[in-house]
Amino acid sequence: MRYGFIGLAASLALAGCSLVQTDTQAPPPLTQPAFEARINGLEDRLASQCDPAEVLQRQRRHQQDLTADVREVGSLLRGLRSDMASRQEDRDDKQVVVDKACKADDILGTKTLLGRSEWVGLPKLETYLQARIDSGAKTASLSAQEITAFERDGDDWVRFKLALQDDDEVVDARRDAWIEAPVERKVRIIQASGKETRPVISLLTTLGPIRQKVDFTLNDRSHLDYPVLLGRRFLLDIALVDVAQRYIHDRPSFARDDDDSPDSDDSSSNDESPDDNTSGENEGSS
Question: How many CB atoms neighbour CB 229 within 10 A?
């Protein structure tokens, strides 16, 4: 039985080998003339692609193209340099040298020169006062004391006296006079000691040729050298300050009973005590 199985396996293996085998024919041998013809064709093809004359001609054409491009770029650069040179010449011809002295004279011609200290006139108050001109300060300030707020016809008003030192120059009749003026607004001042609200009034102010309305913050400046301070808002666009000079402009003069003083209807100044107000005025705290 075992020998029969082995024989069957051997016969199957031989049958499989016979099935795998196929008929393969080798290519026919290349004859000598055919081989030479193929070689000659390859040589002709290589010769056509690597012809030295044709390669040299292509290189020359490329060089000519590069030379033409370089010449064109050079021409453009020369034209650009010429254009820039002509523009510079035109600019030099149009350049104007400004004399610094002339420029300074023009500025001074449009602005008023002030010293670090000046006399100011307050037509509403009918007096003059000494003022410090300080470009480091922003607003203006007027020295006032006994400041009392009240209402008049529904508007906020303030009553005060000038806070002056004994040697401060002022029209004698106005030194202890009560002054009343409408309140334009109130400002809050923050100091080391705390916050403080101050009234602001508008007064016509004269200084040399300058004549304009100025907003003054009311506060006691009697401990300072000047009862009036004028800051940058007053100086803006109209004045220059020469800190080396003082009192460039003369002190204004006022008649004691000048009924024609400007803007006399906007605010009033009188010698009455606050207790002499009419019943229509309601006092309030500032």
Answer: 21
